[in-house]
Amino acid sequence: MATTKKAAVKTTEEAAAKKPAVKKTTTKASTKTNEYKTTVTLQFAGKETCTCCMKKKAVEAWVAAGNDEKNIKSLALYVKPEDNKVYFVVNDDQEGSFVLFED
After folding, report:
1. Disulfide: which of 1, 48, 72, 100 matches 43 by Cβ 3.0-4.6 Å?
2. Whole-prediction pTM value?
3. Could you tell me the residue ranges of all domains in the chain?
C-alpha cells in the first residue's frame, strides 16, 4: 500500500508541473475625468441671463454689503423669475438678493 500513496503523490506533482504558470496582470482603472464647460441660460418673459452673470451679481451684492470676496466658501443661488429676484446664501449663513432682469 505504501507504493500506492507514493504513486498518487507523484501523479499530483506531475500534474502541477505540467500546468503553465498563471501570469498575474493588473489593470489600472482610469481616474481621468472628462472635463467640459456647462452653461445654463435662463429665459423668461422675453429676457435672458446666464448663471455666470447671476453669480457675478451675487458676489457684487455681497461685497457691496461690506464683505470680502476672499471669504466666500460656498454660494447658493435661488432664482424666482416670477418675482424678478435672485436670492443667494453665502457660506450657508449669510443671505442677500438682487434684481434678476434690469429694465
Report:
1. 48
2. 0.62
3. 41-103
